[in-house]
Amino acid sequence: MVDAVVVGAGAAGLSLAHRLTGAAGAAGAEVVLVTAPEGPLRPAERTWCWWEAGPGEYDEAVVAAFPRLRVRGRAGDVAERRPGALRYKMLRSGGFEALIRGRLAERAGFRAVTAEVSSVRDAPGGGAEVRGTAPDGRPVVLRARWAFDSRPPRRLPPARTTLLQHFRGWFVRAGRGAFEPGVAELMDFRTPQPPRGLSFGYLLPLGEREALVEYTEFSPAPLSDAAYDRALRHYTRHVLGLADPHVTAVEQGVIPMTDGTFPRRAGRSVFRIGVAGGAARPATGYAFAAVQRQSRAIADAFRRGRPPVPPPPHSARSRGMDAVLLAALDAGRVSGPDVLTRLFHEVPTERLLRFLDGRTRWWEDAAVGLRMPVGPMLRTAAELPFRPRRNASGK
Predict the structure, then answer these.
(1) Which of 27, 209, 256, 300 has minimal Cβ neighbours within 10 Å of its Cβ?
(2) Residues of the chain predicted below pLDDT 70
(3) DSSP strand E in 136-223: where?
(4) In 150-303, alpha helices (H)
(5) What is the distance between the alpha carbons of residues 320 and 299, in angstroms, rounded to a whole number?
């Protein structure tokens, strides 16, 4: 019997294990981190980004930090901002994992296990039980006071609106002077817009010749690999003017954008964390900062001897505003590119970034709301309570 078993070694699992075993969380806690074996259950390399002021605890693994942010409208109009002391920081999952595992290896209470987990549930005599299979076929049984499960949910919760943020990114190498280091292009709406939802380009320069270039859609279903590649070829060649960039790596992902409620408790002693616990902001898909807030709160409760129930990653007010925006986008009542471009033009940058991260006060939310199409948003808000919640299948 250990203090905690953490299932999954993504951003949420690694962050929680790091905090539970560290002095800032619960020094001396016995924690087992269960990692999936090599294969389809282990996610491919991916990128995480968030805003942060000043030096941070993960700076050793940060690939790039951007002091300037840029958004381009459909007509090419540019909103470029310097968000004060905030920096848009970029991590690669492999570098983050190496950093955290290096720190965990020095902590006496930590143990790593590789297994394909089949069940995470309350144990009959109290506590939690995790069962799985080791790479050599041996059964694995772990017992703990608490278990935290970060595996992706098998199905999305019933919701009034469900869209997907799906994307494919190319790490490219181009000619000298192709990119502008220090400027993150968060959204470039000079892309063909889908019939439902929106699309944009996303550009993070790693130098004058190297960058991550992504094509992203908010829409009901992902595209085929061939369709993503066509969109990226169009964006790099016809929008960015890169004749024939060399693709060095590819990443791809799908993030749920839903007003459904992700249950954070799966038993007396079993909790869900990360995206499985609702960490992804419904209207933006950003999750890394929320994962850090959630893991800090869990570790603090653990240290104080309280049940370490994961708190809601986003406030009820933020979730309510996101629900209205998602429904309005899905119904075609507002133009996503126009709304988001206007926000970056008219809202003070630091306030907007805190709004996107769910850390604004009510009066700041109201000020941001007044920059949106008030009539369509109010109509959608009035109708929302009467819209049924349906499963992702539509039933």
Answers:
(1) 27
(2) 23-28, 392-395
(3) 139-149, 162-173, 183-188, 198-205, 210-219
(4) 225-234, 288-303
(5) 27
